Amino acid sequence: MSEIVDSFVAPPCHDPIEILYQDEHLLLINKPGGLLSLSGKNPLNLDSVHHRLVKSFPGCTLVHRLDFGTSGLMVIARNKAINAALCQQFSQRSVRKIYSALLCGHLADDDGVIEAAIAKDPARFPRMTICDRHGKPARSHYQVVERVDYAQQDGSTVPVTRVVLTPETGRTHQLRIHCQLRGHPILGCDLYGGLLLPGSEKTPRLMLHASELHFVHPVSGEAIHARHATPF
């Protein structure tokens, strides 16, 4: 099998990371869209959430990641013990993650569940694929907020459905590929059909935002209910 080559080079991200909360154990941040969570192997992809934060918070580590184009809430551990405790919450699926998104077109249903196993697609890296045989189980819930004509920066409009997405599992690209499977890709998604709707090619970003993150503080035991307004 030929070696997978990642030729992606991230364009510069000038937006700052917003620190929403910090203590001696962890950070809660708002990641801007267009910033890698972790620096890539390509030296041109050095800029990332971790690369920026470790300068001010030595020893900090990522507990989870958001896709390059996704904005929103992330929790960052400030030491290895906190990382282990938070990772356990994620692996036990006791962390609740809620996303806001704009989907291409108008969904017929007001809510539903998408259940389809996801696997790597080596022939089309970095894409993932739906595969019952080799994939890992994945389940996502969606709830329609509104159906509107979304105004682009040039004044043109595209029909979209604003939804709340709640993943039960945390597979790579899960929400993006599940929405494509449902027939309504996330607007602006370059990998899974979100730039194919007429007019959507002008969309400036992936319209996916991690708007809520619910977990338990690993030291105080306090229930943390973090929310951040959707920027689109």
Q: What would you note in describing this structure?
A:
The chain has about 230 residues and is mainly β. The chain is built from three helices and twelve strands. It has one domain: Pseudouridine synthase (2-Layer Sandwich). Helices cover about 10% and strands about 35% of the residues. The strands form two sheets. Strands 1, 2, 3, 4, 5, 6, 9, 10, 11 and 12 form a ten-stranded mixed beta sheet that branches. Strands 7-8 form a two-stranded antiparallel sheet. β11 and β12 (about 225) form a beta hairpin. The longest helix is centred in the middle third of the chain and has 12 residues, at about 80-90. The radius of gyration is 18 Å and the shape is globular. It starts with 17 loop residues before the first strand and ends in a 5-residue tail after the last strand. Keywords: Isomerase. Its EC number is 5.4.99.28, 5.4.99.29, 5.4.99.-. This is Ribosomal large subunit pseudouridine synthase A.
Determine the structural class based on helices, strands and strand pairing: mainly beta
Helix-strand sequence: EEHEEHEEEEEEHEE
Strand content: 25-35%
Query: What are the low-pLDDT stretches, counting only 5+ consecutive residues below 50?
Result: none
Radius of gyration: 18 Å
End-to-end C-alpha gap: 42 Å
| Largest sheet properties | 10 strands, mixed
Contiguous helical run count: 3
**Average residue pLDDT:** 95
What is the highest CATH level, the class? Alpha Beta
**Overall body shape:** globular
**Total E-strand runs:** 12
